[in-house]
Each structure stands twice: as C-alpha cells, then as structure tokens.
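dumping this here so i dont lose it
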C-alpha cells in the first residue's frame, strides 16, 4: 500500500468546484477519464454507490465513505480488478483567490502511480475549466 497526494489551483470559485464534486452527473465535465456516472443518489452522501465509466465504456464500481459539506471534503473507494483505491478529495480557497483542490490516492502502489497523471489532469480541469 502507498499514498500519493496531488494538488491543483485555479480561478474557479470554491463553491462551484464543490458543486462539481457534489453532483456525480457533473464529473464528466472536468474529468476526461470519466464519460458517465451511474449513482444511487444525485448528490454525494455516505454509502452512495455506483459505477464510473471511461471513454472505452469499461467501468469500475465505487462506494462513497464520507462527505463533509462544511469542510468541503469527501472520500470514496473504487474497485479496480482485485484491488481497491481509496480517494480523499478536498476543496479550499486558493492563496490568491480561486480554489485549491487536493486528492490523496491510497492503494496498490503501481495502480496509485499509474492513475496519478490522469488524476492530476482532472484536478487541473476541475479548478480551471469554465462550464
């Protein structure tokens, strides 16, 4: 097991970034590795489950472990083959306005390291792409 922490800062307002996380139907707007999401609820809640689809139409199941709107942070687990990735996301005001979004990925080291470039690209889009 290993953990890796990523951050990205951009001009999008923290409330908008949080909303982009809060509503799984919005994830494809900023995450190029997600083409669609099937979820048991329209907004993140602990225990919510579903599937995330990539552009090749393959999918992985997920379960949301925790959500704190007050802290603008949430955690979920994604099952990839025989292993799980734990992902902890948070949103905070950027140092000069805008937003800093953070992500800690935990799991099987090759999977964590392999996913990191896609995750960083998604984080950058999350805080910079206007919708």
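and the seq i came up w/
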């Amino acid at each position: 097991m290993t953990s890796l922490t990523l951050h990205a800062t951009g001009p999008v307002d923290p409330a908008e970034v949080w909303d982009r996380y809060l509503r799984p139907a919005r994830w494809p707007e900023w995450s190029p590795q997600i083409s669609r999401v099937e979820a048991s609820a329209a907004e993140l809640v602990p225990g919510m489950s579903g599937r995330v689809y990539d552009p090749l139409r393959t999918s992985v199941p997920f379960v949301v472990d925790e959500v704190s709107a007050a802290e603008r942070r949430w955690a979920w687990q994604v099952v990839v083959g025989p292993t799980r990735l734990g992902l902890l996301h948070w949103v905070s005001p950027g140092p000069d306005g805008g937003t800093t979004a953070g992500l800690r990925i935990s799991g099987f080291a090759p999977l964590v390291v392999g996913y990191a470039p896609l995750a960083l690209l998604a984080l950058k889009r999350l805080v910079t792409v206007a919708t």
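The radius of gyration is 14 Å.
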